[in-house]
Amino acid sequence: MKHDFIQYTYYVYIMASKHNGTLYIGVTNDIARRVFEHKTNENKKSFTARYKVHKLVYLETYEHIDAAITREKQLKNWSRATKIQLIESTNPEWTDLYDHLLW
What we know:
Layout: E1 10-16, E2 23-28, H1 31-39, H2 47-50, E3 55-62, H3 65-77, H4 80-90, H5 98-101
Antiparallel strand pairs: 1-2, 1-3
């Protein structure tokens, strides 16, 4: 019997309020939807809504959820300076990457 499995891509992402602003790290399997939820303050009481964290500034992809969650936890334990270095290694201008998701 053949099994067809849905192949997901998992994303670890960093959102920012502005250049060198407040940071938020998350994991999702639908990056466009999740960032849209942050940008539109879908949950008015959420951290990203309270601190206006609406810019997608960093993104990594994974094939397995376990690897994505492990990486998310790793990034959350890093110092702020190390997180900023990571963002600036691929996005020195802190450009909002959300527009690049909407092909």
